[in-house]
Structure prediction request, 277 residues.
Amino acid sequence: MTVRISLALLLALSASAPILAQAPTAAPAAATAQEDKALLAFLDQAFEQQLALSPESMTSLGLKTDYGKLDDYSERADARSLALQEQQLAQLHRRFSPERLGPSARLSYRLFEAQVATSKQQAPFAKYAFPVSTNGSPAGNIPVFLINEHRVDSVADAQAYIARLRDSERVMNEVATKMRDQAAQGIIPPKMVFAPARADAKKVISGAPFDQGPDSTLPELYPIRRLQEEGRRAQGIGRGEGEADHGRTGGADRPLRQGLPDPVRRARCDRAQGQGQ
Prediction:
C-alpha cells in the first residue's frame, strides 16, 4: 500500500514537473516585457524632448507647437541639444539595465548609447559646417519651409506665419555671426558659393511688396491672399498687415548678405597668397 501511494505520488509529481519548471521563467518573461515597455516610453519621451528644441521639426511632423517660431541657428542650440542627450543617457543608465531587457529593447538601448556617443564625437567639428553652400542657405530654405510645411487652417496659423517672417531676421543674424566667426578662424566656403547664395536670397525678395517691380512670387506660392478676407472678418490679418510684413521681411536677409563680402575678400586674399607661393 505504501509503495503504491509512493508510486502514485511520484507519477503525480512527474506530471506536474513541466508546470513547476516553467514557473520561474514566467516571472522573468513578464518582468522583461514590463522593462521593454518602460524603455519604449522613455525613448518616446526622449524624442519628444529633443523635438521640442526645434519648432521647424515639429511643424514638419504636423504639429503646431511653437508655430510662430523658427529654429535657433546659433551654436547655443547645438550645445543645448548635446547637453540634453547626455542628460537623457545618464537617465537611461540609471533606470535600465541591458540584462533585464529583451533582444529588441536591448538593441534600442545600445543604439541610443551609440547615437549620443556619435553626437559627442561630432560636436568639436560642428564649427566646420558651412551654413551657406551651393546646396542652399537659410535665406532660401526658410521660404521653402514656410511655403511647403507651414499649413494655414485659421487666422492664428496665418499670424504664426507672419511671426516667422519677423523671426527670420534673427535667424539671418545668427547665421551671419557664425560665418564671421568661422572666417576669423580661417573656415571659409569656396568662392563659388557666394554668388549663388546672394542670387537665391535676392530672388526671394524680388518684386512687390519688396520693391516697385511685379508682384513677388512668394505671396502667390503661399495662401496669404486666400486668408486676407478671413483675416479681416476675424480682425486678425488683412492685406495691409500681411503685405507690410512681407515688405519688412525683405530686409531680414540683409545681415546674411552683408556677412558674405568679408569671407569672399578673405578667400580671394588666400587664393592670391597661394598663387604667389
